[in-house]
Amino acid sequence: MQPAIRTGLITGLVLLFFILIGVYSTFEALTVSGIWLTIQGATASEIAAQVPTSTNPQFSRILTALTALLVGALAARQTTSIGKGLASAALANAIAGAMCGVFLLLANALYGANFNLAFVFEKIKEPTVKALLFGQPALVGAAIWLGLMTVLGLVGALLWFGWRALNLRQRMARPSGSVSTRSNQLQLAILIAAGLFLFLAPLFIGVYWNQVLGSIGLYVLLGLGLNIVVGFAGLLDLGYVGFFAIGAYTIAVFTAPGYPFQWNFWIALPVAMIAAAIAGALLGIPVLRLRGDYLAIVTLGFGEIIRIILKFNPLTGGPQGVLNVGAPTFMIPLIKVPVGFGSSTPFWYLIFFACIIVAFIAIRLNDSRTGRAWTAMREDEDASEAMGIDTTRAKLLAFGAGAFFAGLGGAIYASRQQHIFPDDFTLLVSINALALIIIGGLGSIPGVIIGSVVLIGLPEVLRPIADYRLLAYSALLVVMMLVRPEGLIPSARRQREFHERDQELEAIEST
Amino acid sequence: MSTATETEHGTTSLVAMAKQRPLYARVNWVAVVASIFVLLLILRMIQVQVNLAQAGKLYSLNFWGLQIGNGLTLGGVYALIALGYTLVYGILFMINFAHGDVMMFGAYAGFFVLAASDATGFTKSNQILTIALVFAAGMIIAMLMGVGLERIAYRPLRAAPRLVPLITAIGASVFLEEAARLIFGAPIRVYTKPPILQGAIIFPGGIPMPVTGAFVIVASVIMMIALYWLVQRTKTGRAMRAVATNKEAAALMGVSVDRVIVVTFAIGSVLAGAAGVMLGFHNSQINSTMGFFPGIKAFTAAVLGGIGNIPGAMLGGFILGLAEALGPTLLDIPSQYKDVIAFTLLVLVLIFRPQGILGESLGAEKA
To answer: Which residues are within 8 A (CB) of A111 and not within 5 positions of it... i.e. 6 or more apart?
Structure first.
């Protein structure tokens, strides 16, 4: 019974945390019809006009119910017999339900005694408490929590037992053997199809999704660059946004009106990339001889410092930023008329090709002599140094390459946004990029793409709860590191590295 | 231990032999450039003072006294936070990025106790007791946060590759910051100072100092002495030092390593909680992002003094506080850039003396 009590307490705490951060008050803005309209490309105001604003807590209730089912299944999983499983699932969820019930009773009593709980916990307003008690008298509401959670726990346990029964039969029927060559061909076919789809996509997906696709592409670009630093070389760079900002501001200063240069985008682009790479090298030189922790905190500080300098520096427009950054133009060969990048479609192609080029460079780099040096250094720095690898040089190369591609991303971003402000370049960008490469799988290029589709694309659909984005990403970072450090689509080598110790332990146990 | 050192020396000399290159390649250009930079900074300071003297506008002694007082106050807070970094680093060799956010939670806990005490009129009648309660709340909540963080996020990863706990730590830091923003709300909360912490003390020579400043300095120094006594003179402290020196050997000698690590996190977080409440009283305002820069700066202080070294963290904290308070005036730059000063100092320390002022030369394992 002890594991069940533990599970129950943890679940209770998680649900209380959900209540405290306002999942039950904010998520009500999230409705099925609203999401459907978003997918069709409606703007926020259009959705607000079409979807009634009446509170409709379907998602928070679904979320709670799913949590309860999951916890029931988990509690049942820890036991052997069905009877015990049902009992511990019911117990775990009853504890969690009781914790929520008691909290709501307390909250209700405090509001009854004219204590404004919202002063402490901003999201727990009186109507929220009433709604969470199902509009019933407090004790009845709390009892509903307890009862409903217990029942859901039982259902979850039953579902688990049912699934296990099915799964056992399936496992017996599953043929063994490898299908790797076929899956390789399949992978290639999927890759080509996806590439074609993405190439033609802007023609039929509409303006809104075009924008979203562009954002996803930009983050793929950033992720590919950061992947070189974190995934290939194993250096934690938390100031990635700093190089992104340097790229963006360089191109802004060289192309925007109001500065003496007003160069063509294509001339300013390499300058921006080189500026970012130089900044990366300058920052890296003092730190790279030391161990990785120093690099992490120095880059973390650097990212914020760059923002402060940009914000209080009259040269870069201060808090007002730089307006009207130049857009790329193309000369059509015969008629010699420059064609500007007016809409988001040409920018999508720019991003698309940039991604392909960077992905190609990243793959080739990883397979090159330098790439092998990175791998060796990542796995054991002392051993690699003893084998004659100049680790400082290898680190500097990785760091510079990462910054170089961040500069490219920044330049395209600035040109696409037209106006840039210092507060576009917060730590959020670094965390986004880091989260997406870790979710996808460190060192894995398909992982970067999947990661940015999930982490950048999904929030666009779930716009009403955008406020929870950073919280969710940071939680994902921790959970992924605890549960699956190699990511969703791991590179084969990283997977083995992360599980080296497990395999050693298994080997010891089996002997 | 001695064999390990010998092999270390062996590797270094081999590497050194492999690196026998011409003179121009052996000069540490980074250090040369950094030295020129430092020289320019010093020249700039002299130039600023000469200009001021020519214009007859030299700052008064009062002004400098006030600035030094500010610096020491900030330094006390940084030192307290830095101790948490140093203790954890000394034992686990990891940077607890979330330490600054633990401090922020301490500040919030203190704030709510203070607000409750103000609302009930308790503050007016029992000022000293109120302050003690505010500190107790901040320290206890911070301790719970720190210990919980260790249990949930760090302990399962103790054997993982180095990158993994680092990423977890940064994730935990952002998570705590965002959770505080969502739970307590984004607006700034205002600490109302109890009457005995209001006003200023006038030191001989007419140098004023806010009462909170003096209070912070005294309280932080007392806590540091208590910590030093705890680490050097008690059984727990001896266990901590043993684990810091060699985990396996300590475990063989009957020290419970897990327990020592929990105690270390608890002590570090208690000090951070106290620092959070002090910042609240001194600056009068707190919000969910208040942990970020003090966190980075306290880390700088820990590195400056020699990471893993307790007196070093205290010294580093005070030096950094003074640099930050006096720097903008000495260099005549806008005070918005004061965060840049700490960062520059960190980079310079890492170039010239990565082991810190009081740190011994660290082996490859720690450096």
So the answer is: A117, A126, A129
